[in-house]
Amino acid sequence: MATVTTTHQICAVRRFKPSFAAVKGVHLQRSHHRLSKSLLHGFSSSSLISSAPSLSYIQPRPIRRRLSSTGESGQGGGSANNGSSEVSVQVGFFQLGKLVNFVESNFLPLALVGGIIFGMLNPTPGYLAHKYSFSKFSTFGIFFISGLVLRTKELSAAMEAWPAGVFGLSSILLLTPLLSKLIMQIQLVPPEFVTGVAIFSCMPTTLSSGVTLTQLVGGNSALALTMTVVSNLLGIIVVPLSLSRYIGAGAGVSLPTKELFKSLIITLLVPLVLGKILRETSSVVAEFVDKNRKSFSVISALLLSLVPWMQVSRSRSLLLSVKAEAFALAAFIGVVLHVTLLGANAIALRVLLAASGGGKDSVFAKKEYTRAVILVASQKTLPVMVAVVEQLGGALGESGLLVLPCVASHINQIIIDSVLVNWWRKKDQVGEAKDL
After folding, report:
1. Among candidate residues 295, 302, 297, 331, the one with its CA nearest the CA of residue 115
2. Which family does the record claim for this protein (predicted)?
3. Among 36, 57, 78, which residue terminates a domain?
4. Which pLDDT does position 81 carry in this prediction?
5. pLDDT at 215 over 90
6. Does residue 332 fall inside a structural domain?
7. Alpha-carbon Rg for the chain in angstroms
8. Would 90 be classed as within a structural domain?
9. Helix ranges restricted to H, 26-151
10. Residue 372 and residue 168: Cα distance in Å, rounded?
11. Is residue 157 part of a domain?
């Protein structure tokens, strides 16, 4: 009878089939290992039979594994080292991402500064590029790209805000050049620094940064683009006249107005028209350009950075002889010029709003229009300035010395307007939060 009972118990043990997860987590003592080995040999030992009932009470005990700070399982110090290394990699990628975003957001000023630094460190390549008139090709490329990215529907959409556009063009081409007479009264050594900033004040608006900043702040990009294109086209006529009247007469120099006009048509208008024609005649080209507008902006910025690179390389010996204080003062004059234009345009728009009745439906009451005008009408373009200086042939001084403070002014105006745009965006977010 006892034998039968033991057999049933052994069968119960055999029928016991724990789950795979439980078996995987079982932790047996040495006696249990010996016991299971005896079971496989037919349970021949009497001591085995007497102890068999205790098998039904063996509970699977899971193996506890320590978790590292990153949530990964492991043992000892190795897991901690792996976790810390993974954290270091994640932090490294995060820092790299921040660096990439910074470069993308500030590519134009970084490219301009990089061109200046490279020209100062190794002037030979830039000197050779200038010798073979590479600057003409870079300017041609900039305006050709401007024609490629120019959308017709964006131009037609700006017709609603034509009063604001007319004021913006008047400020760019008629009012701002008046400041050049005041700038020319400043005494500075070398005098080319002052003359360069005065020439810069007579230029049309920037080709890309004004439109880009307008888009970032939620302004009317069509209006910004229209003022950009029209001011640069009319600048072909107006700029030579402004230089001759406000700068050339004060310097006792007769500017080659006809030659300058022809040169601006060839280097600015022709490539712009060619780029626009290519866009309108080929849907494949237009689609490709629209999908890669960011890449074309980078190419345009690189072409623009070649200009100060060649000018600085060419005039490196002169630049080294210039006092740092003089250059800093010239750069400060450019900052004052831009801040003055921002304030004057903002005040003028307020006056126009009051003159139009001050209604909410007025063009001058809509911030998407006023912000576009303030940004675009307060900036000055560097490529046109360089094209003008190239055609002067040294009539107003050394080309490199004329261009260098304008490069600083160009960078400073982008930085100042970026701060202004961020302030506007935060102001809008606060207003939206109050409305909610």
Report:
1. 302
2. Belongs to the bile acid:sodium symporter (BASS) (TC 2.A.28) family.
3. 57
4. 60
5. no
6. yes
7. 37
8. no
9. 30-40, 46-51, 76-105, 107-121, 123-131, 134-149
10. 9
11. yes
**In 3-state terms, what secondary structure has residue 305?**
helix
The rounded distance, in Å, linking the Cα atoms of 131 and 327 is 26
Report whether pLDDT(10) > 90. Answer: no
| Joined tokens for residue 190 | 């070398």
pLDDT at residue 317 greater than cutoff 90: no
Q: In the block, which residue shows the tokens 């935060």?
A: 426
Lowest mean pLDDT, pick from 82-91, 115-124, 259-268, 365-374 = 82-91
pLDDT at 255: 56
| Residue 16 belongs to domain spanning | 2-57
Whether the upstream peptide bond of residue 190 has omega within 30° of 0, thus cis, is: yes
51-57 LR contacts (CB < 8 Å, sep 24+) = 52/6, 52/9, 52/10, 52/13, 53/9, 55/13, 55/16, 56/9, 56/12, 56/13, 56/16
CATH of the domain at 366: 1.20.1530.20
Task: Determine the Cα–Cα distance for residues 110 and 88; give it in Å rounded to an integer.
Answer: 28
Specify whether 130 is located in the same domain as 273.
yes
Structure token pair of residue 154: 């964006």
Residues 6+ apart with CB under 8 A from 328: none
Terminal C-alpha separation, the chain: 86
Q: Do 42 and 133 belong together in one domain?
A: no
Query: How far apart (Å, rounded) are the C-alpha atoms in residues 336 and 182?
Result: 12
Q: Are residues 379 and 268 in the same domain?
A: yes
Domain ends where: 57, 79, 100? 57
Residue 292, classed as helix, strand or coil, is coil
pLDDT digits (tens, 9 = 90+) for 273-315: 899 899 989 989 988 988 888 788 788 778 877 877 887 787 7
308 φ/ψ angles, rounded to the nearest 5 degrees: -65, -30
Does one domain contain both 30 and 177?
no
Does residue 102 belong to any structural domain of this protein? no
Counting Cβ atoms within 10 Å, is residue 137 exposed (0-12), middle (13-18) or buried (19+)?
middle
Residues 250 and 373 in one domain: yes
